[in-house]
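Record type: monomer structure entry
Structure origin: computed from sequence
Chain ID: A
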Amino acid sequence: MKKVLILLIAMMSITTIVFAWTEEETIQWQREQWEQASAEANKLMTYIGALVDTNNNPVAGVCIKYEVNYLNYGMARTDVTRGEVYTDASGNFTIEGTGTGIEFSIYQPEYYMKWGSIHHAEDGTEKEETIVLIPKGQLYDLKGGYKRFAVSPAKSLVGLNLYRDQMVGWTMIPPEYMDEYADIRFEVIDNGSDDINDWQFKVWTSDEEGGFVEFQPTEYANYTDYIMRDAPETGYQRELIFNVSDILTEAGDKGYIERKYYFKLRLRKAENMDGDLVFGKIKQISIMPEEEGDIYVDITHAFNPDGTVHLEN
């Protein structure tokens, strides 16, 4: 029995000796753990790009500004390294860096700005792409604004109680444009259900000559043009109907849906007099379901005050 006790005491003593690290040893061990975690999170990545115009001709001498994001476990932060490269005579460029991801932007005055990235968790450690630069057309001085509407079964929002028949909407427009605004209206369609999933709502205009038409990007051989340039002359409808159940399904994990529309609408003056009929664009209508059951509808729009269909800006 004594031999067993002596052996146990000896083993406990040995264990105490093994794990009784000094402060320096503890710091060194922590440093090694951080370095290992950083090595696993950060990889050497290579992005190989080629810039071409819409005719597939290389675009040389373009500056690409980039950032490399490095996850630093030791400092509990993300370190960012910035740099820039230029396309060669063949329009090619390469960006390399060690981190979790590389993000870059391409700016050339006569083209629309482009962005790109590589994240090794999704893309692997090497990515190769051809980027088509979209040319700018004639730009116009547009006026614009922002509207937010809310659909809510019952909730207090900015001091108002919202119900099916008592929705709220407000407009934020730069002060210099407060004398006129596009006649974009919002209404919940009451079908008598207490379940918001059964509801519909509409974005509409009171002007019989006005309406909306959904924007469709133009497909070309080697690229798709997503720029809203000229509004169509015809094909407008006075109201857009949205089903809440469809919105919730489409939003999914992303949490929102987006749409773009051209519009032809009557301008409303501050003194409630009818203004001119103008062409414009809803650059973005974002529909965002909230966890509480409410739905927010954000509308960012712009119009050409000269009455023409030209909307590039």
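Annotation 1: The longest strand covers residues 274-289.
Annotation 2: The mean pLDDT is 78.
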